[in-house]
Amino acid sequence: MDVQPFLIDNTWVTGGGEPFVSSNPADGSELAMVGSADAADVDAAVGAAKRALENPAWRDLKPHERARLLHRIGELLDADSENLARLQMRDNGKTLRECRVLVAEAAASFRYFAAVCETFEGELPPPRGDNWPVTVYEPVGVVGAITPWNSPVTLEAQKLAPVLAAGNSIILKPSEVTPLIALEHARIALEAGLPPGVVNVVSGGGDVGRALVGHPGVDMISFTGGTKTGSAIAEEAGRLLKPVMLELGGKSPNIVFADADMAKAVKGAGNGIFSGGGQSCIAGSRIFVDETIMDEFVEGLRAFAQNYRIGPPEDEGTDTGPLASFAHRDRVEEFVEIGRGEGAKVLTGGARPADGVLAKGAYYPATILTGLDNSARICQEEIFGPVAVILPFKGEDDLIEQANDTVYGLAAGVWTSDYRRAWRVARAIRAGTIWINTYKQSAITSPFGGFKQSGLGREKGLQGMRAYMEPKAIYWSMD
Ligand code: NDP
What we know:
The protein is of the alpha/beta class and 479 residues long. It has helices spanning 39-54, 56-59, 63-79, 81-92, 96-119, 152-165, 180-192, 206-214, 227-240, 262-274, 294-306, 326-341, 377-380, 395-404, 419-428, 463-466, and strands at 3-4, 6-8, 11-13, 20-23, 30-34, 131-139, 142-146, 169-173, 199-201, 220-224, 244-247, 253-256, 286-290, 345-348, 367-370, 387-393, 411-415, 433-436, 455-456, 469-477. 40% of the residues lie in helices and 19% in strands. Helix 3 (63-79) runs antiparallel to helix 5.
């Protein structure tokens, strides 16, 4: 198998590291052999990215000219959407249906940030002396972007688009589990006509990420991934006084009050945890249910989970494909065993499929656990799989105390027909995103990120581009 190269300074290179295999979690087959960067490659990428910042072909572009390039990238993503969706499906196991939506979202991110770039303004604050102060926003510089495996096409676009819109250069390090989409992002950047060194992709494992974080030439790190890794990155970045944007893990509460529309709440809670195999930072993994409706809800969710079809990701009838890797499936399985050891009752799921096509892939069924309280390990630690824990609550105060009793603060859902209660609970939960009578909906226009150990900073929204810029105050004497 030929080694697939990555991109530095608009040149494809196979790198000085040991090439690695990317495989299809649906059947374990090898998809590609991918080149890996070593420290010298990271150094070369940083050099290229720094030169790009000084290159008039990039540095001197007016915002509307940068916006045109971003639109072009969006168009190229759209034009190749079916191939990209199939590639992501093969690399990480998400259903083809979901991958098509994700590619469209990635293209939309570029268009949105093109618009933000073109309309972004500086400020003229009122003077307080014989001068006129002007606030301008400048690119932060070379941005190191490190991404996880659960949704490469969108998560990578969510970094590339605002970083480029702000006039920076970028070095993207995708997860070793799903490296292939980042190579497509590199190809598209090249086709769109970005000058050398503006977009660089270095594939490889955690060491490549560490080399980026520790490199003195990288001005900022934007990371999406696990909280433990995020904390290690923040520590190193703190030592170097380097700004970081961190989008980390979650253990989000999805809350069902007694006055909720039961059918909608069951479906919303089910999709909130089982879609995408639960491999989502915002998965509603702790489902809190008013104790007075517990039996009815549990029966509803059990039926939902049992009808949730796992299967080959390209099949139209499949609700969820395999998990992204065999190693991750083993980890999810281990968590369910920890839950059992803690005394959980497994209502449905809880064992990998034993026969047929599914036995060859990294499949794991929708699983529901009950009988634990919120202090159990599986209620506190992120599983990142299709595993829901149902927890009872008694009244709003008890609910808020339990829902906030977590180190995470990424998202929450509230199901109720009382709009006053919805508002009270939405304000009392310490999390970056709250859904009321819906779950997992998102828009590139709204800020996204976490409270507490779910992260630092916000992606998306108007501020999403500003996050990659340095404000500068310039005073003009009027004396
Ligand atoms: P990891 O934290 O393990 O890895 C994320 C990325 O960091 C990968 O590219 C990884 O490389 C790299 N990496 C690993 N160690 C280091 C290090 N010390 N320094 C720099 N880079 C490093 O996360 P996963 O890939 O397992 O992704 C799952 C996690 O991502 C979950 O916790 C999930 O909640 C979180 N996530 C958060 C989102 C959010 O927006 N808040 C969205 C999606 C996911 P490699 O994989 O090659 O080892």
